[in-house]
Specification:
The chain is α/β, with parallel strands linked by helices and 463 residues long. It folds into two domains: 2-236 and 434-455, Aldehyde Dehydrogenase, Chain A, domain 1, CATH 3.40.605.10; 240-415, Aldehyde Dehydrogenase, Chain A, domain 2 (3-Layer(aba) Sandwich). The chain has helices spanning 31-50, 53-69, 71-82, 86-103, 145-156, 170-183, 196-205, 215-228, 250-262, 282-294, 314-323, 375-383, 398-403, 442-448; strands at residues 2-3, 9-15, 18-27, 112-115, 123-130, 133-138, 160-165, 189-191, 208-212, 232-235, 240-244, 272-278, 329-331, 346-349, 366-372, 387-388, 390-394, 412-415, 431-432, 435-436, 450-457. α2 (53-69) packs across α6.
Length: 463
Amino acid sequence: MTTDPTGVVTLTSRNPADPADVLLSIPAPGAFAVADAVERARTAQTAWLRGGAAARSAALGAVASAFDAASAELADLAVREVGKPVAEARAEVARTVAIWRYYAQAPYEPTGTVHETAAGPGLLLTRRRPHGVAGLITPWNFPFAIPSWKAAPALAVGNSVVLKPAPEATACALRLAEIVEKALPEGVFTLLPGGATEGGALVSAADVVSFTGSTFVGQAVAARATARGIPVQAEMGGLNAAIVLPDADIERAAADITAALAGYAGQKCTATSRVIAVGAALDPLREALTEALRAVPVGDPADPATVCGPLIDERARDRVGEAWQGLPVLAGGTMPAGPGWYAAPTLVEKAAADHRLLREEVFGPIAALLSADDLAEAVRITNSVPYGLVTSVHTADLDTALHGLDALDTGMIRINAPSSGVDFHLPFGGAKESSHGPREQGRAALEFYTSSRTYTLSPARTT
C-alpha cells in the first residue's frame, strides 16, 4: 500500500516469486465506502433471511459449484498472488468447494428447542436468529478458504456479509467476490478491499465481526468490537510445538514436522516453530529432521515439486533471516538466489528461553529444536509461551496421548500428525493470545453468527 501526496491510498499486489510481476494496482475505497456498503448489506439482509432455507441452501450450493468449475484458474491465481505452491493451492480450492457444500446444508439445521413450562399451560421456546451484517477481515495466506469458512456459515444462517481481505490477496478476493456475488441477491455479499482504514471502519459498523490475522491487530479489533457490545471472534498467532517422545516413529515424526515447518514457507498460524525432543529422542530426531529439511524442494511455487515457495514480501523474508542470526544452524540458514523472496527451511538449536523464536511468531520456515527430560517438562515448555493454538504429539503410546496431555493449554492437539492442517467441520481456535471469542468453523460457526432468543408462549385464555 502506498499513499500519494494528495492522500490517495493505492493497493498494489505483486507476485512474491517475481516482484516485478504486478497483478493489480487500485485505489483503496476509504471509510465512507465501508459505511455505505454496510448499510446496503443491512437492507439486503432482511429479504435474504425471509427468502427461507431452501433459497439460501441453493445459493450456497451454486457458489460451491462455481468454485469447482473455476478450480484450476483459482489455484493458478493463488500461486501467482500469494506464492502458494501449486499442490497446496489446488488443495485449498478443493477445501473451499467442500466448505460451501457443507454449509449449503446448514439452513435446514434446527434453530431452536421447545421446553415445558415450569407450571401451567404454554410453551417455552429458544430460537437462534442472525445478527444482521457480518464484517469479515481475512488474511492473505488462505485467500479462498478463510473468507469462505467465515462467509458461508454467516450467510447460511441469514446474515449478509461485508468482506475486507488483506491487501496482499486483493486479486484473489476480487475473483472470489465475483463468484459469490453471482449466486446471491444484490447486496448480500460485498467485497471492500483496503487496509487498516477500511478494516477499522468495518469493525465500527458491522453487527458481528470475525477476524483472522496478527495478534496485535486482532487484539485491537476485539477491543473495538467489545466496546461496541457486538459479538467478535479473533484468530491470531501461533507458536506451535511438536513434542516427540522416545517411542515415536522418528522418521515419520520428522516427515510430519518438516511438512508443518516448511510447507508454504511456514506461513500458516498452525505451522510448527518449536520442536521438543523428549529424552532419548533428541539425537535421532536431530539427525532425521536435519536430513528431511535439507531435502525440501524450494523454488517456483508453480512447479508441482515445490514444497517451500517464497515468503509473501521482502520484510517477511528478512524477518526469518534475522531470527536465525547468532544461533547454531542445523539446516537451512540461507536465502536462495532469485528474484523472489525466498528463505530455505531452517532448523536451529541452543536458543535461549527469551530468544524471539521462543516468544514471538516469526511466520516463516524456521523452528528451534529443544530438549526435555520427560513429558511433564515438554508440556511446561509448550505452555511457556503467550500463544496456545495447536500442539502436535508424536508417540506410539496411546495412553500417553489420551491421558498424559491434559495439561496442554492449546486449543487443538494432534497426535501423530503435523501441527498444520484443520478439519473445517470441527471447531477451530486456540487459547491465550492465539484466539479471542467463540470458535469458528463447523457447527460452532453457526452459533457464533446467531444469537439465542427465548420465547414464552402463554395461552390467551385459560379454561
